[in-house]
Design a protein that fits this description.
Layout: H1 18-30, E1 53-61, E2 67-79, H2 90-94, E3 101-110, H3 121-141, H4 145-151, E4 156-157, E5 162-163, H5 169-180, E6 193-194, E7 197-209, E8 215-222, E9 227-230, H6 240-252, E10 259-262, H7 279-303, E11 318-321, E12 324-327, E13 335-336, H8 337-343, E14 348-355, H9 360-363, E15 367-378, E16 385-395, H10 402-421, E17 427-428, E18 433-434, E19 452-457, H11 481-493
């Protein structure tokens, strides 16, 4: 199975859909390659979609805004022939300190095809309801929305009563609020205007669970100093190859230009699917382990060389830098990897390792955290909403590559704007067919819809989740964005919209 670059799957590519099986069966029957192409209209029915969800929330707080009780119920759709469960109500259990929390989720079987995980699964849907409700509470209590969240900051996981592996959500709030200029917000809805447009500020928190799956990787060091790293993972657009290259280069102390990462083939060491924001924590940990094992082998080989200063030396005393090994506290001890392999008449040395979670999952609660701040302008006559500024900050552990991470964060903001203001599948219930079956009728954000976006990361390694200290970023980037937009719309207009997307007809 070869699948190096499958494009933007974002959930729908996680499972094998019936048409894929049909193509395989056809190829086996014909004994020749078969290419199957779905038209745009077929993409609305042949693969999954984000399930429609109805949610009910009840929140109780004292006069100081401290939460005393929350009830969150969700009903999601699925098909008649399969069950598809979402994480819609899970964030309510973990995000805020509240002594009494009740959640309930149920499925409704309908005559539709099976939905699937889609761009932040149920977390994005559930966070829209939760963060909209918190915003509504802030106005009822007369407390700044950001201050309300700080007053209910959870120092421990309220669901499991465990310490966080790492949590810098306070710093996220501070960083993003300062960059956004939240202090300039006028408290009264509808009181801010700019050139005849109603202006609104909105914010929302974000949270996404940490996922790490058993993964394998192989590292092969060649005599010419180049490194080949292999794993049967894939790349749906976030820059997996770049991230793994950087992890390997950093561990072995060589230039990224000398590293090649092979992926996308089932012949390579086992890796999980690319989903759940788990690839860097999972496959990255395996790459880290394989490189560490390779370093141990190099140290052993170096120690076997006549007169070597690396005899009887522990790994903690050795630096790997610029394609060389050297003793940290002794000058003149450097020896290149190429020299080591040449001495032993080896063309290459390799190591393969598997990495998986351990007992730390039982001792700590592990999440990615973040927040979004959004400014909107609303035309008071037409109800048109424009997002004019957006600031996001994420606490996702160590950032492996700032450029691709920033792109992930921007992509989440763009997807969240689409979720909040545009994207909706409209079905003709007489025939069970989607009316919005192409990109002319199913509206998604284009460049003209997207403002300047500022992205910040706390960039602090989480020492408990894995050896590289990195957590997932891909999905938390969209979680909470729709709520931040909706909250900004309320601040601009005084109208609380509880059904997405927020189209002009709901505001006029």
């Amino acid at each position: 199975m070869v699948s190096k670059y499958i494009g933007g799957a974002f959930g729908s590519g996680i499972r094998v859909w019936p048409h894929t099986v049909a193509a395989v069966l056809a190829a086996k029957h014909l004994k020749r390659p078969v290419k199957l192409v779905l038209g745009r209209e077929q993409m609305f029915t042949s693969v999954g979609y984000r399930p429609y969800t109805v949610q009910k929330l009840a929140i109780g707080a004292d006069r100081n805004g401290k939460l005393v009780a929350m009830v969150h119920e969700g009903t999601g759709q699925t098909s008649q022939y399969e069950e598809h469960l979402e994480r819609t109500i899970l964030a309510t259990r973990a995000l805020y300190a509240c002594p009494n929390v009740v959640t309930k989720y149920r499925l409704l079987n309908l005559d539709v095809n099976t939905p699937t995980w889609m761009r932040g699964p149920g977390d994005a849907t559930g966070m829209f309801a939760l963060e909209s409700a918190l915003d509504e509470l802030s106005y009822a209590a007369g407390i700044d929305p950001l201050e309300l969240r700080l007053r209910n900051y959870a120092e421990l996981d309220p669901e499991r009563n465990l310490p966080w592996s790492a949590k810098s959500l306070r710093k996220c709030y501070e960083t993003a609020a300062d960059a956004f200029g939240w202090k300039n917000r006028a408290a009264q809805p509808g009181s801010m205007k700019n050139k005849g447009m109603l202006t609104g500020f909105g914010m929302a928190s974000s949270l996404y669970g940490f996922h790490r799956h058993p993964s394998q990787a192989k590292a092969i060091l060649n005599r010419d100093g180049t490194l080949v790293v292999q794993s049967a993972t894939m790349d749906i657009g976030p820059g997996t190859g770049t991230a793994m290259t950087r992890i390997a280069a950093e561990r072995l102390g060589i230039s990224s230009s000398k590293v090649r990462f092979d992926l996308g083939s089932s012949d390579l060491p086992d890796a999980p699917g690319q989903n759940g924001s788990s690839t860097v924590p999972s496959v990255g940990s395996a790459v880290y382990a394989a490189c560490e094992s390779l370093k141990t082998k190099l140290l052993t080989l170096a120690g076997q060389m006549p007169g070597s200063p690396f005899q009887h030396v522990g790994a903690e005393q050795v630096l790997f830098k610029n394609g060389q090994m050297l003793l940290e506290k002794e000058a003149g001890t450097a020896i290149s990897f190429s020299k080591i392999l040449e001495h032993h008449n080896l063309q290459q040395v390799e190591a393969q390792e598997e990495s998986r979670s351990g007992a730390e999952r039982d001792r700590y609660s592990m999440y990615s955290f973040g927040c979004h701040f959004v400014e909107v302008q609303v035309n008071p006559f037409t109800g048109e909403v424009r997002v004019t500024r957006a600031v996001t900050c994420a606490d996702v552990g160590k950032i492996i590559n700032h450029k691709t991470a920033r792109s992930q964060a921007i992509g989440g903001l763009v997807g969240g704007i689409g979720m909040a203001l545009m994207e909706a599948s409209v079905m003709d219930h007489r025939f069970g067919r989607y009316v919005t079956s192409d990109l002319a009728t199913y509206h998604i954000p284009v460049h003209a819809d997207i403002p300047q976006m500022d992205v910040f990361f706390i960039d602090e390694a989480d020492q408990y989740v894995n050896a590289i200290g990195a957590k997932g970023l891909g999905e938390i980037a969209i979680v909470g964005v729709a709520a931040a937009v909706a909250n900004a719309v309320f601040h601009a207009t005084g109208k609380r919209i509880r059904e997405l997307p927020i189209t002009p007809d709901k505001l006029v």
